[in-house]
Amino acid sequence: MDTSSYSVPTMSVQLGQYQAAVEATLQEFNARHFTAGFWQKQADLWVQDAEAQQSVRSFMGWLRVAETMLPRVGEIEEFAQEIRAAGFKHVVVMGMGGSTMTPIVFKQAFEKSANGLPLLVLDTTNPGSVREIEEAVSLPETLFVVASKSGTTAEPLAFGDYFYARLKELKGERAGENFVAITDPGSKFVTQATAEGYRRIFLNFAEVGGRFSALSYFGLVPAALYGIDIYALLERAIAMMRACGSEGAVADNPGLMLGVALGVLAQQGRDKLTLVVPAGLTDLGLWLEQLVAESTGKEGKGILPVAGDPLGSPEVYGPDRVFVYVGYESQPDEDNRRKVAALQAAGHPVIAILLRDALDLGAEFFRWEVATAVASAVLQINPFDQPNVQAAKTATDQLMKVVVERGSLPQTSAPVLTENGLSYYASVAGSSAADVLRAFFQQAGSDNFLCIQAYLMETPALNAELDALRQLVQQRLHIATASGYGPRFLHSTGQYHKGGPNTGLFLQLTTDHAQDLPLPGRPYTFGTFQNAQAAGDLEALLSTGRRTLRVHLGSVGEEKGVAQLLRVVQDAL
Ligand SMILES: O=P(O)(O)OC[C@H]1O[C@H](O)[C@H](O)[C@@H](O)[C@@H]1O
Question: Which residues form the signal peptide (predicted)?
């Protein structure tokens, strides 16, 4: 294959006063032949402890996975053809974190091609969202792709069991025809999928970690089913590999440049990677959040990707930002570009990447994977583990044990206040909801961020309300804001929240789930599972000394409850 005809997407890096510091680190890295060591998986570039070094070495399979996958394109495309020929009309990919982020990006960035199948992604335990997917498809004509590297993650197993039981009611012993697994060789899930007669099991690669798996079966199987030219995606990724030094010394390594810039900026306090994208690329933010936050957010260090923050004028930003614009060469995207230019003129560091078309995402996945690993070397941390994600999972597991034994979640401590049906749980107090919120937000320092954690059903209306809440906080407090739906963010930015610097204010939103959904074979519902995940994470946040406020919307209703909260925040700030 000749990929030499592909150039990689352009990137401009304007660092202002940080130029000299970034150049000094680049020179130092080049002087010690960092790129050569990187491709040789030299683990002491990141960590010095022998066990941690072993872990680093064992998760670097992503470096060459695009090359490994290229000869397998035919096999994946034949499979997609088989699915179309069998009469399937929909594809639902189910999983968490790295196992579903790439299909989410593809679905938004690409138009479904004429021979592709409509694609939906399920990555939440919210009963309303599960029901929404069930109602959007014709079950017998739907292919369910259960994607889990470890094969032990609770959510994908629950999704698989739920839809398998539904299909069994409709097709009896032939239910497995509608199911495909993507998992690691030898995972427990291989045994289950085999026993249940899954149509196909794609075995991925143990040495490719979840958030670095975009260019493996996890990204490529859904892409091919959706009708994307996966050969072209890989060709562009391989062009980027070469530009990043996979075949020997290179002069301007775009992954090294980006990674050193982000790492050095974070060290200098510019640790909020604020992403600016046109409408068709907003979900790239979800992918980047997972890659960057989960890889770097540990040991009190890290880079926080801020996606979906309303883009303001320079005066609303503190000196904790680096702005990264990712857009299309051919799209003017005037409003964003004008604002980014103003930010640059005001002295903020700005990095801009221009894609020719959506297939360039193949190259960008690889650039960002390299950059994340390089930034982690600057910060001297292991990019491939996620120790604090486990803490929340363990707390949730404990709570679920209680649910199994006693039939319901244990009582939490009493709220500090209940007003108009909303209950407030916090370490700060007040005689009204506005007082509680004021006290909560008064804790914010200038380099802090607000993180909204919504264990609710994602809808366009709720998204708009959460955006309005973020905008209000940004305008009144001039701090970064982030927002995520639980449990999705638990497998992504959740690592940074508990393992990164203690600069977050966490606003958790939960509800009673008036319309719940039973989980087959388990003595609990999706709603209880989701609430246990919220409670488990709250415990993990508190145990690492994080400042939290949980607002339980009870039976007020999700959109109505958040609208009410927004009005209280307006009064409070
Ligand atoms: O693919 P799985 O093994 O099911 O893992 C899904 C996700 O779960 C974990 O929480 C990790 O933190 C993520 O990095 C991972 O992508």
Answer: none
Q: State which of 102, 123, 150 you would mutate to test the pocket of ligand 1, scoring each by most atoms of that ligand within 8 A of its C-beta.
A: 150
Which pair of tokens denotes residue 477?
A: 């407090």
Judge whether 233 and 360 are in contact, CB under 8 Å.
no
Question: pLDDT, tens digit, for every residue of 282-334?
Answer: 999 999 999 999 999 999 999 999 998 889 899 889 999 999 999 999 999 99
Note the residue count of the chain.
573
3-class DSSP assignment, residue 346 = coil
Query: Is residue 232 classed as helix, strand or coil in its secondary structure?
Result: helix
Terminal alpha carbon distance of the chain: 59
- Same domain? For 211 and 288 the reply is no
Which tokens hold the place of 522?
């388990």
Same domain, 40 and 93: no
**Residue where a domain terminates, one of 200, 233, 266:** 233
Supply the residue whose CA is at minimum distance from atom 9 of ligand 1.
491
Containing structural domain, residue 188 = 66-233
Ligand 1 shell residues, CB under 6 Å: 95-99, 148-150, 153, 156, 210-211, 294, 386, 389, 491
417 phi, psi to nearest 5 deg: -165, 145
301 falls within a domain? yes
What pLDDT was estimated at residue 1? 46
Q: How many domains does the chain have?
A: 3
Residue of 59, 94, 96 with the most ligand 1 atoms within 8 Å of its CB, for mutation: 96
54 and 84 in a single domain? The answer is no
Structural contact between residues 133 and 92, judged by C-beta atoms closer than 8 angstroms: yes
